[in-house]
Specification:
Layout: E1 8-13, H1 16-26, E2 33-38, E3 49-51, H2 60-70, E4 74-77, H3 80-84, H4 87-93, E5 98-99, H5 103-110, H6 112-122, E6 129-133, H7 137-149, E7 154-158, E8 167-169, H8 173-184, E9 192-198, E10 203-212, E11 216-218, E12 223-224, E13 227-229, E14 233-236, E15 241-244, H9 251-271, E16 277-287, E17 290-297, H10 304-308, H11 317-324, E18 342-349, H12 366-371, E19 375-378, E20 381-383, E21 389-391, E22 395-403, H13 406-418, H14 445-456
Parallel strand pairs: 1-2, 1-4, 2-3, 4-5
Antiparallel strand pairs: 6-9, 7-8, 7-9, 10-11, 10-16, 12-15, 13-14, 15-18, 16-17, 18-22, 19-22, 20-21
Helix pairs in contact: 5-6, 6-9, 7-8, 9-14
The structure holds adenosine monophosphate and glycine.
Adenosine monophosphate (AMP) is lined by residues 127, 155, 157, 164, 167, 169, 197, 199-200, 204, 226, 236, 283, 294-295.
């Protein structure tokens, strides 16, 4: 079945993920123009990409005016904030095909307590957890002690959007208990403020599916590196680098994950009268007892998008348009076709990130990095009138290396990242270094059979 191709696409957002989205969509057959609102000056240098710098993506009226001005056939909402603010609802009501969930469905990301509630109802495994209001200090402490008595550590998560930075994986009982008041201070006493989870161990994976309410088509799986420092040390960030494919997560296992995680979540959201259309991002921990869902996001990951999108062999626009209309093809492949080979993305961050980043430092070596053949996606830059780029955000750039293998892609990304510098630049030097070379973790029986077949091919 051939899908309708959108020719004019509006993308909302301004980060590295949206740069990668605009780059991918603008390169597809039939696309006349991709407009990004507000976008960034760097995106405007891409072929067939235009930006609308004045548009506030959190303002529904401004977003609708932008979509009308372009006569957009498809609107793709990049970040979570406009979704949680109701951008998709407003665009839908104005008659646009919008890819991104309605506000009620975006709660899967906006509230970790809600995600736990939906997952429990859908029979999807998550870490053992409880939610606490601003008044529940003692109860939270008691639950942390209960976990400790059962031999489990605690993870504290602020309920609400926190740009990937509201999570602390604690190292001791004392630390966990001490941190509770900080999470609860000033928070309402009648709504979840903090989710305390049992600490799980294993490798993480991000499996993101294009969803139309009922059906789910997976994008290539990726693995993010969440901690700031090499060896997974330091504070959690929005993500310091990623790679794809995952040698330990072949298509058969991804199909199993769609069946046991994404589709049950979709069914439960539909049952609640809030069907989910958009990118459903399952952040997973692959534990010895099988995969567990750590979090849902309602969008592409960043920096996962930067490694995933360049690996997709087929046009994405028609798939997103079909999903936006609630009509992904029945019986189609459950994983998008991929370009053979691998991609490794290294995030270059500003001094101060994940706290308050230093801005305004001139960036050297961008042309040299691109001359190596790498892609450079801008997340937080500005362009001065002299044409030079300066830092203007926490995560500043993602440098993407590609190659036939993860090792060669990693070498390409390192080479390109090595040519870029600015005062105080932070980066990891171990992205994809410990990538498994094959399935080396226990996987569920059904998926294991599929994996064994895959290995024999
Ligand atoms: P989240 O935003 O919920 O995905 O959490 C951010 C990061 O914190 C995850 O990518 C993990 O690295 C870590 N994390 C979250 N929940 C847990 C958990 N239950 N056990 C261990 N690590 C976790
Ligand atoms: N890289 C993780 C996220 O986008 O939430």
């Amino acid at each position: 079945m051939s899908l309708a191709m959108p020719t004019r696409i509006l993308v909302l957002g301004s980060g590295g993920r949206e740069h990668a989205l605009a780059w991918k969509l603008a390169g597809e057959p039939g696309v006349n123009e991709v407009v990004v609102a507000p976008g960034s000056t760097a995106m405007a240098t891409e072929h067939r990409v235009r930006i609308l710098p004045g548009v506030d993506s959190l303002d529904p009226a401004a977003v609708i005016a932008a979509a009308r001005g372009l006569a957009a056939e498809l609107v793709v909402v990049g970040p979570e904030a406009p979704l949680a603010a109701g951008a998709a609802d407003a665009l839908d009501a104005a008659g646009f095909a919008v890819f991104g969930p309605a506000r009620a469905a975006a709660r899967l990301e906006a509230s970790k307590a809600f995600c736990h509630e939906v997952a429990a109802a859908a029979g999807v495994r998550m870490a053992r957890a409880r939610a606490f209001t601003g008044a529940d200090r003692d109860a939270a402490g008691a639950f942390i002690r209960e976990l400790d008595a059962a031999g489990a550590g605690a993870v504290l998560k602020a309920d609400g959007l926190a740009g990937g930075k509201g999570v602390i994986v604690t190292e001791s009982l004392e630390q966990a208990v001490e941190l509770v008041p900080g999470f609860l201070a000033g928070r309402p006493v009648d709504a979840p403020a903090l989710v305390v989870e049992e600490r799980l161990t294993g490798r993480e994976a991000s499996v993101i599916a294009v969803c139309d309410g009922t059906r789910a088509v997976a994008l290539p799986a990726a693995r993010d590196h969440k901690r700031l420092g090499d060896g997974d040390r330091g504070p959690n960030t929005g993500g310091m680098g990623a790679y794809s494919p995952l040698p330990d997560l072949d298509d058969a296992i991804v199909e199993h994950l769609l069946e046991t995680i994404h589709r049950p979540l979709l069914a439960e959201m539909t049952r609640r009268g809030t069907p989910f259309r958009g990118f459903l991002y399952a952040g997973l921990m692959l534990t010895v007892d099988g995969p567990a869902l750590l979090e849902c996001n309602v969008r592409l990951g960043d920096p996962e998008a930067q490694v995933i999108l360049p690996r997709i062999a087929s046009p994405l626009g028609p798939l997103l348009l079909a999903a936006a209309r609630g009509r992904l093809p029945e019986g189609g492949p459950s994983v998008v076709p991929t370009i053979p080979g691998a991609a490794v993305g290294i995030v270059l961050a500003a001094k101060g990130y994940p706290g308050d980043p230093e801005r305004g430092h001139p960036i050297a070596g961008l042309d040299d990095a691109r001359a190596t053949g790498a892609l450079v996606f801008h997340a937080g830059t500005d362009r001065w009138p002299d044409g030079n780029y300066v830092t203007n955000g926490g995560r500043v750039l993602t440098v993407l290396g590609r190659g036939p293998t993860l090792d060669s892609a990693r070498a390409a990304a390192e080479r390109a990242a090595d040519s870029i510098s600015w005062e105080g630049m932070q980066r990891r030097r171990d992205i994809a270094v410990d990538a498994p070379r094959a399935a080396d973790h226990p996987i569920p029986a059904g998926a294991a059979r599929g994996a064994a077949r895959g290995a024999a091919r």
